[in-house]
Amino acid sequence: MARLTINGKSFEINVTPDTPLLWAIREQVGLTGTKYGCGITQCGACTVHIDGAAVRSCGVPVSAAEGRQITTIEGLAAGSVLHKVQQAWLDHEVPQCGYCQSGMIMAVAALLRDQPNPTDADIDERITNICRCGTFQQVREAIHAAAKA
Ligand code: FES
Ligand code: FES
Question: Is ligand 1 within 6 A of the CB of residue 99?
């Protein structure tokens, strides 16, 4: 058993402590906006926030997330008001197939929390998520737009 706080709600779930957080979020809690890409912390599709920091949830055991605030893409907006990164993504038509995008947005939201006006070098260093559709240029433009919002 584990108790997780996700998007402000508490969930008691029946998993072993070493279960990857990604599977608890998707399979136990049913929040499928967080995606499975590689399973080995390389692609970023599974990125969520733990206490505001971006983490790749396929590499975090449930035991390390208990007692902390987990936020998924479903909890990023404030009610009906989109997070400024989500709005910039819409304005700049970033997504193509969309598969990588929830993880990308979560990584960018954490970047802007830490560095409100990132340079291209900051973006290159922090946003290492993989997009098979090659949206990297649109991602960069949208990050700069969100930073100005
Ligand atoms: S699925 Fe977690 S980094 Fe790829
Ligand atoms: S939008 Fe298709 S993988 Fe990124």
Answer: no
State if pTM tops 0.90: yes
Which ligand is located closest to the Cα atom of residue 129?
1
- pLDDT tens for 61-118 read 999 999 999 999 999 999 999 999 999 999 999 999 999 999 999 999 999 999 999 9
**Three-class DSSP labels, the chain:** CEEEEECCEEEEECCCCCCEHHHHHHHHCCCCCCCCCCCCCCCCCCEEEECCEEEEHHHCEHHHHCCCEEECHHHCCECCECCHHHHHHHHCCCCCCCCCHHHHHHHHHHHHHHCCCCCHHHHHHHCCCCCCCCCHHHHHHHHHHHHHC
Q: Is the CB of 97 under 6 A from ligand 2?
A: yes
Cβ of 38 closer than 6 Å to ligand 1, yes or no, is: yes
Counting ligands in written order, the one closest to the CA of 138 is: 2
Residue 43 beta carbon below 6 angstroms from any ligand 1 atom: yes
